């Protein structure tokens, strides 16, 4: 089962929940306030951009190249 990220429209709480692939959004309940009015968030799984403090410009983690085609990865 995948983990999805949600934001509660009532209280603004952001949370993650393990859900079946065919989950019903109306069944998801905010763990903070108990409301069933939530919105699925865009998840950037595995992204390491400059705004998150990750590496910038590197194409892969095993070398310092800016393009994976130049190192064969």
UniProtKB/TrEMBL annotation:
TM stretches of this protein: none
Disordered as annotated region, ranges: 50-73
One Pfam match: Zn_ribbon_8
UniProt xrefs under InterPro entries: Regulatory_FmdB_Zinc_ribbon
Biased composition (Low complexity): 58-73
Domain Putative regulatory protein FmdB zinc ribbon: 1-43
SMART domains: CxxC_CXXC_SSSS
Protein name as annotated: Putative regulatory protein FmdB zinc ribbon domain-containing protein
Natural source organism: Anoxybacter fermentans
Phylogenetic placement of the source organism: Bacteria, Bacillati, Bacillota, Clostridia, Halanaerobiales
């Amino acid at each position: 089962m995948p983990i999805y990220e949600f934001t509660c429209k009532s209280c603004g709480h952001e949370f993650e929940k393990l859900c079946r692939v065919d989950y019903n959004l109306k069944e998801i309940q905010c763990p903070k306030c108990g409301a069933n009015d939530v919105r699925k968030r865009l998840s950037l799984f595995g992204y390491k951009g400059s705004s998150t403090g990750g590496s910038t410009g590197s194409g892969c983690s095993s070398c310092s190249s800016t393009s994976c085609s130049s190192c064969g990865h």
